[in-house]
Design goal:
The complex is a heterotrimer of chains A (about 350), B (about 130) and C (about 150). By secondary structure, chain A is of the alpha+beta class. Chain A is built from 12 helices and 8 strands. Chain A starts with a strand and ends with a helix. Chain B has about 130 residues and is α/β, with parallel strands linked by helices. The chains are: A alpha+beta (about 350), B alpha/beta (about 130), C alpha/beta (about 150).
Chain lengths: ~350, ~130, ~150
Amino acid sequence: MGKSTIIPFGPQHPVLPEPVHLDLEIMDEKVVRAIPSIGYVHRGLEKLTETKDYNEMFYVIERICGICSFGHGWGYTLAVEGLMNVDVPDRADYLRTALHELSRIHSHLLWLGLLADGLGFESLFMHCWRLREKVLDLFEKMTGGRVIFSICKVGGLRKDITPEMQNDVLKTIKSLRNEVNSLTKVFLDDASVKNRLCGVGKLSKTEAVDLCAVGPVARGSGVNNDIRLTGIGKYLDLGFKPILEEDGDCYARCKVRILELYQSFDLIEQIMLELPQGPVDVPVKGMPPSNDFIARMEQPRGEAFYYVQGNGTKYLQRMRVRTPTNANIPAMVKTLQGCDLTDVSMLILTIDPCISCTER
Amino acid sequence: MKDAMYTIQNFTQIDVSGLLEKVQNLKSEGYRLGQICGTPKGSEMELLYSLDKDLSLLNLRLTVSYDASIPSITGIYWPAFIYENEIHDLFGINFTDSKLDYQGNFFKLSKPTPWKQQAESEKEGA
Amino acid sequence: MTYLSKSPWVIHYDGSSCNGCDIEVLACLTPVYDVERFGIINTGDPKQADVFLITGSVNEQNKAVIKQIYEQMPDPKVVIAIGICANSGGIFRDCYNVMGGVDTVIPVDVYVPGCAARPEAIIDGVVKGLSILEEKRKASEVAKEASA
């Protein structure tokens, strides 16, 4: 046994475009301990509630993260709507659900691409990102933006979609489903991919519970804490059932995300066929009262908390977001212990960390 | 308001002295730690511990002064180190007996946040 | 586009952006937009890069990192600030941990606005940056001849 060495990982590392920093304590080729520290992209946006009113704040919240921007916006509006007792029309709820699932497809495809890149499978990476562009085109048609949509607002949606858009969505989902089929074969059956993923970074069910893991990380270990079951949006009406895998390794986490792609296709198709007519927003009167409300949202990366506290003025007293990556850091630190140095990037990737979410 | 599970909030006010016992009991009942959130309120600070069991929320609310020492719950829920270090670094609240204490180096910031500055001045005034 | 006789290499650094612009920079490099067909290559080494793409605003933490990358790049070089945060701080301008745009630390040649900046806008900005790069190269040659 050699003596231990500390290797800094990040803030600039090719596996992620974002600055993440870890101190890895290495004994020979094994990681003994991993210590995360953050602060490179901390902006302090929760403090902005003091200068931006609750409607303006929505646009700040959307910009917590450019990947799950819709989910953040929705989570925030859900919290403010809960605080102010606003009921959103059915059509808006269906459309929000559809847009959120489209975001999930875009986020999971992006992640699959990064995973392929981490594996050194460049062509697979390019294919994932090519398919992702189709989803972005849909976003652009429906909302006007590719990354940041600003279509949600307290009380509903800023604008409606047309029947032509509805058809476009159905058409795109159909072609995506075919193309994702061929990607799935590579991700789930290819020997070299399996070699890197199977049995790596095991997280047992008890560990996942103890470490309070969320999202696909928890579901890959058979823990069901999918917030979509709590009655947000229209998931329960659509007969939503979470996807669970038992193995708890990198492969299981990858499989959960791939199966979720298909699930999102189904949900969106169902919504586009059943979409009720009606208004997409209701007028919102008054100010957020002196009370508090916690809304939770199942982001592509897992459960997120949106805590709002009003004080009777148009400014919120406090707004806090707890993002899924925040909750998954302990699980990441635990799975890194005892892994090979070469697997570190794979492990960090399968948590699907989003640093700008974490640091806000 | 729609009658859904997520609208049920369950806020409970508790004391600092009863925190550890309460959290320990909840853990043995099968609760999962969701988050710890700090809210500065004038000369006091509000801490909110959100726990989840089978998707229903339970929120424990603590009202503390800025110079109080809060017993760390990392002995019960290890992942709490994320939230405790964050609250220490951003709001200047001290936690005792933490299993993983970054000593103020979790968030690497060049100068203290406005919240922390406020906490410092409150501590001096007290 | 006669000035694309050379194949410019770019380096990308994420300041404290929300990821939106970073993803769009990456989208420029992947199919659909694919700037690699013009010979533009994304490198991780500042000493190999001609063009510096920065997304996100500057804070005290990354100030030194940005300066260091800029100083390591060989002359002539071009800095392109992508997205409104890198231009001026944008929506996060009032945040306590944000210093402002990239030009508070290093000189910026091209500003690409947008939140998030669209891939078309980013490509446009890079093309604009390349003509500035060419001018800078010519200027340095003239200066060399004058001193000889």
